[in-house]
């Protein structure tokens, strides 16, 4: 299998029910060019072991269904909180993310992304420091090939990572060993829209990503979740909608998929599976 990271490819989040080796088959069924998956249950519990048998079955399935190593990314479990007021929660979150990076390296995934969590108990200022300190600890001594990404949030309550300035500050505070891949960013169209970044027109999209480039650096943007929004601009709510059925709209997604500043990234829908095949077909059409 060749390692082929062509950009502007489109896919979605797929299930690993029955084993991670089932993900490539589902991705092919949905029409994915790339795909996202969990490596374990997002709700908790012990992760299934990635022994040689499991890895062989996974890489065999990749080949069978026409994917290359690196054509997929891994999402961390949802219960992660690096900004918690409880040190045990932070400690467990650090352990789980580092474990996910190690698992993703075995699976040869390109990226692992995570939500940073809520600073409700400590406030945003301390939350940013807790997150940056935690990521520094996660990456200490890490020599894997999978890169860690901070996912942009919708900013509901005191969730960390809803502004470009906040993400930039976190990245600036993280200390990384020589030889370790530095953390970068996973964009999410719905989260960013919920946070107040307009994505509805070509002009608005270009302005948003010029701002991203100024505050964070477009070279740090590695991938994007591609979701329409059930809620209005700046609502600070995380509510995904099928492509074209939400507040961003088809004009916005056409602009996103054809924005010159974004020509280097792939797109992953996280919409419900009832219409995700239609979402993928539509995104491919809008890409031109």
Automatic annotation (TrEMBL):
Endonuclease IV plays a role in DNA repair. It cleaves phosphodiester bonds at apurinic or apyrimidinic (AP) sites, generating a 3'-hydroxyl group and a 5'-terminal sugar phosphate. This is Probable endonuclease 4. Residues 25-285 form the Xylose isomerase-like TIM barrel domain. Pfam families: AP_endonuc_2 (PF01261). Binds 3 Zn(2+) ions. Its cofactor is Zn(2+). Keywords: DNA damage, DNA repair, Endonuclease, Hydrolase, Metal-binding, Nuclease, Zinc. CDD domains: AP2Ec. The keyword Chaperone does not apply. SMART domains: AP2Ec. The keyword RNA-binding does not apply. HAMAP family: Nfo. Its EC number is 3.1.21.2. Zn(2+) 3 binds at residues 191, 238, 240. It is an enzyme of class 3 (hydrolase). Zn(2+) 2 binds at residues 151, 188, 225, 270. It comes from Candidatus Magasanikbacteria bacterium GW2011_GWC2_45_8.
């Amino acid at each position: 299998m060749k390692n082929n990271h062509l950009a502007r490819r489109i896919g979605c989040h797929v299930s690993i029910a029955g084993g991670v080796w089932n993900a490539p088959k589902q991705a092919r069924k949905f029409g994915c060019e790339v795909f996202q998956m969990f490596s374990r249950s997002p709700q908790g519990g012990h992760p299934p072991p990635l022994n040689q048998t499991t890895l062989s079955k996974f890489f065999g399935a990749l080949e069978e269904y026409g994917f290359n190593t690196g054509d997929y990314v891994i999402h961390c479990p949802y219960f992660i909180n690096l900004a918690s007021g409880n040190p045990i929660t932070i400690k467990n979150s650090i352990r789980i993310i580092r474990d996910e990076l190690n698992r993703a390296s075995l699976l040869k995934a390109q990226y692992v992304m995570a939500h940073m969590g809520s600073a409700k108990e400590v406030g945003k200022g301390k939350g940013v420091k807790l997150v940056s300190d935690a990521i520094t600890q996660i990456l200490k001594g890490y020599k894997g090939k999978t890169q860690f990404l901070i996912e942009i949030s919708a900013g509901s309550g005191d969730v960390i990572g809803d502004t470009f300035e906040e993400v930039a500050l976190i990245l600036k505070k993280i200390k990384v060993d020589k030889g370790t891949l530095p953390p970068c960013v996973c964009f999410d169209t719905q989260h960013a829209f919920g946070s107040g970044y307009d994505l509805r027109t070509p002009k608005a999209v270009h302005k948003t990503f010029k701002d991203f480039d100024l505050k964070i650096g477009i070279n740090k943007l590695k991938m994007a979740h591609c979701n329409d929004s059930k809620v209005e601009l700046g609502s600070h709510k995380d509510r995904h909608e099928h492509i074209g059925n939400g507040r961003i709209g088809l004009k916005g997604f056409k602009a996103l998929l054809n924005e010159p500043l974004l020509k280097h990234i792939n797109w992953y829908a996280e919409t419900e599976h009832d219409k995700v095949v239609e979402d993928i077909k539509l995104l491919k059409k809008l890409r031109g």
